[in-house]
Amino acid sequence: MKIAISGKGGAGKTLLAGLLSRSFVEDGYRVIAIDADPDANLAVSLGFPPDFQPVPLSQMKELIEERTSTGADKTGNYFKLNPHVSDIPDTYSAEHDGIRLLIMGQVKRGGSGCYCPENSLLAALVAHLILARNEVVIMDMAAGIEHLNRGTARKVDYLVIVAEPSRASIETARRIKILAGEIGLDRILVAGNKIRSQSEKDFLVSSLADFKFLGFIPYDQAIVNAEVTNSSLHLASPSVNLAVKDIYRKITGPANPTVV
Question: What string of DSSP letters covers 179-216?
Answer without folding.
Answer: HHHHTT---EEEEEEEE-SHHHHHHHHHHTTTSEEEEE
